[in-house]
Input
Amino acid sequence: MYNANKIIRISKKILLPLIFLFVLKSKAQQEKDTTKLLNFKYGDKGIELRTNDNKFLFQLQSRLQFRFSTPNDTDPLTYDDYSQDKKTTFKINRARLKVGGHAFEPWLNYYWEYELSQSNLLDFRIMIEKWEWLSLKVGQWKVEFTRERFISSGEQQTVDRSLINRPFTADRQMGVEVYGHLKGKGIADFNYWAAALTGTGRGNTSNDDNNLMYFGRAQWNFLGRFLDFEGSDLEFHEKLTPIIAFSALTNRSPYTRFSQSGGGYLEGYEDGAPGQYRVNQWNLETAFMYQGFSWQSEMHTKKIIDKLNNDDETTLKGYYVQAGYFFHNAFNW
Output
């Protein structure tokens, strides 16, 4: 006659190790499967974590920029600025944290950028880019009104942007935009951008009135090659790659200028009331790159209409030209 209690104890001694081994094996298999599902590497945009089916991509990148300046740190804006007290400065000019990638589908992209030194959220946007000819962007970003301002500070050719950047840039705004690349045959190659924005600058969570900023840009790639927003020919374009672009915007707000800090004022327009200034702007750009040589130029016109003071109108004009060449391309080192 069998002893039931003894059989149960023996079964427990056998089953418990088997269960433990099964759990360990399952856990190891799960970790192995997880490793197969994800790819980890360091790429052009920092640390990348990507699923094998390419439905999810996470990119993490950071950038630091230190600045030493003497005898002054800021550009002179008025004649009095040339006689300002001399001051030697060393500071962290930029400390950026960038996160981007796509989720669920390769054409559903996201991106945000944070300035750590000033605690500013610079960019946050979602892009639907399923078709090259038609894409949609929602969020906050740097408006493509001027090539010089849209080029990242990490892609600039010179240390600082030109003096005309301050009065003419639209900088960062919140809103929605449609854009695309129309690839026709021969010279029929265009890019376009069209946006409706709050027109009150970075970080402003509300509009001052019912008026919006409307922006449009048309870019003609007349040799059929798109030129990216970069200051120098680091990529060394083997073929001549030129563009001509025209941008325009209209806005009504308390502000007459914009910067990374948000809405601001040009000299003589301080403390604007809601909807006080109607601003209409135009910009004509040229740019090309070829075998280490780079060129870009902008011509701006900006009209400021004071709607609260008899439609008093002021017109600003400005232009700049920039060119550069990597001389190492001419020598075989």
Q: What stands out?
A: The chain has a mean pLDDT of 88.
